[in-house]
Amino acid sequence: MNFIITLIILILVLGIIVFIHELGHFIAAKKSGVHVYEFALGMGPKIFSFKRKGDPTIYSLRLLPLGGFNALASEVETSKGVRKEDILENKTHLQRFFVLIMGIVFNFILAIVLLFINGLAYGSPVTDPYIGKVLENSPAYEAGLKTDDLVLSINGKNVKSFDDVLLETKFTSHDTYEFLVLRDGKEVKVDIKPNITKDEEGKEVREFGFGTSVKKEKGFVNALKYGVVSTYKNSISVFKILGKLVTGKIGTDNLSGPIGVFSVIDNIKASGLESIIYLTAYLSINVAIINFIPIPVFDGGRILLLLIEKIKGKKLNPKIETTLNNIGTILLLILMLYVTLNDILKIF
User: Fold this and answer.
1) pTM of the full predicted structure?
2) Does residue 154 contact residue 179 with C-beta atoms inside 8 Å?
3) Using one digit for the tens of pLDDT, what is the confidence trace for 15-55?
């Protein structure tokens, strides 16, 4: 039963994120006058469908609750029976950019709304990197770090959120970490030499002995601020993680796919709806940023091709675009396979 509950939550979480992404594309396509063959809720076999009066789009509900999709009229695909001016590639560069970018925008909006709901219902966690509980006799305690210290920088690198603190302490290797904190209006330097242990896989783990602050603020304005600021800070953290992946400072074994997300949900679901809503918002931010990567299979890759077309002053060969998309799809499938195998190995 526990497995089934976790699986249902996983399907709902991923389904909402993907559906909202596709909804962004759909609304932008409609506003831009692009012909949409079908807008589907879910994937797989069709359960039922309908058409609205004066609207050529088929609206369908499909069996598998895994997001949804748009079927747009495109020259890359077959566009029989569609007016030439209603095909995506025949729209202006600005209209095409609007259609491509709105999936990403809607994922950011979803994150803001979910975090706002959390802030309104449960209180808004303070997003600044305040230190929470400091364990007695831990490296942080012995070095003089105190609860409610506001971390300004670690080893000279500015931090804006507790995620930045985790990035600098978990994914960098130093014998001593120099914390610059604000305490009672004064800047204080705290040098922490963490305890180094090894996990089950033999990797070094640095233990500092402090946690994040649990301060929360009430009210509509604070909830709205939390939704916007937390989305921004989480986005910056994701970009930093991607940068560390590219430079090799973080190994690809730290990536997770649906199985990894399943494990996370299994661990946090006992904490209640607040944690699940936060995870959904965080994953929505990840989906938005990953889709912004300039690889053809992602929206960012298509935006890059659109930019190249604009600079060249003429349309790209559809066959070239299709080839690039196919290459991107193959690379993505290889990465997904690697991440899935990695998640399975972590479990066993």
Assistant:
1) 0.85
2) yes
3) 899 999 999 999 999 999 999 999 998 888 999 999 998 88
> How many whole angstroms separate alpha carbon 227 and alpha carbon 121?
12
Return d(Cα 22, Cα 10) in angstroms, integer. 18
- Give me the sign of the Cα torsion angle 26, 287, 212, 247: negative
**Cβ atoms 197, 205 nearer than 8 A:** yes
**Residue 309: active-site member:** no
What does DSSP say about strands 195-198 and 204-207: parallel, antiparallel, or unpaired? antiparallel
Question: What are the tens digits of pLDDT across the range 93-119?
Answer: 999 999 999 999 999 999 999 999 999
Tell me if 208 sits within 8 A of 215, measured CB to CB: no
Residue 226 host element (H or E): helix 220-247
Crossing angle for the helix pair 93-122 and 299-312, nearest 10 degrees?
Answer: 150
Choice among 22, 38, 89, 321 that is catalytic: 22
Q: Are 77 and 85 in contact (CB under 8 A)?
A: no
